[in-house]
Specification:
The protein is mainly alpha-helical and 171 residues long. It folds into two domains: 102 residues, Alpha-Beta Complex (50s Ribosomal Protein L17, Chain: A), CATH 3.90.1030.10; 43 residues. It contains six helices and three strands; from the N terminus they run αβαααββαα. A three-stranded antiparallel sheet has the order 1-3-2. The protein is extended and about 65 Å long. The relative contact order is 0.10.
Length: 171
């Protein structure tokens, strides 16, 4: 009998949803190079990403096609083959690291941060840096352009609404 046995490898999901979950986690990790998730997911994700980077390090057309079959996202596959595999060319493995973050407030699930080993943290700009940037001419120009675009969008939406309203009333 199966009394209270939990299989963490399936995460309580069937094959399709589990595959989709890990696909999206791989996409996020490759694009952002650092993500927060639960500890069991991070541990399972590690092997998938490391296998993908190892396969991408071959750099052949065949390896690229295999990666496209597993992860059908051209941006992600090109980043794995062109960028990540070159960064880790001399490294024999161990491309990711998992940092434990403690428990989540709501359900006490263990959280972790998974990132590539050579990830460089860029801190957010301070308030002084933002103030200097806001005072610049480029910032003001950019803001003016953004407000003009927003106004144009509003006008086009109004036109579309009035046209559809008139069609519905048959005026």
């Amino acid at each position: 009998m199966r009394h209270r046995k939990t299989n963490s490898s399936t995460f309580g999901l069937k094959y399709g949803p589990r595959k989709a979950l890990f696909r999206s986690l791989v996409y996020s990790l490759v694009e952002k190079e650092r993500i927060k998730t639960t500890l069991p997911r991070a541990k399972s994700l590690r092997s998938l990403v490391e296998k993908a980077v190892t396969l991408g390090s071959k750099g052949t057309l065949h390896s690229r096609r295999i990666l496209l079959k597993k992860y059908p996202n051209k941006k992600v596959v090109s980043k794995i083959v062109d960028d990540l595999s070159k960064r880790f060319k001399t490294r024999p493995g161990g491309y990711t690291r998992i940092i434990k973050l403690g428990n989540r407030k709501g359900d006490q699930a263990k959280k972790a941060l998974i990132e590539f080993v050579d990830f460089q943290f860029v801190p957010k700009p301070t308030k002084e840096d933002k103030d200097k940037y806001k005072a610049s001419k480029e910032y003001r120009k950019l803001r003016r352009m953004q407000t003009k675009k927003k106004e144009e969008k509003k006008k086009t939406l109004r036109k579309i609404r009035t046209q559809s309203f008139r069609k519905n009333l048959k005026i």
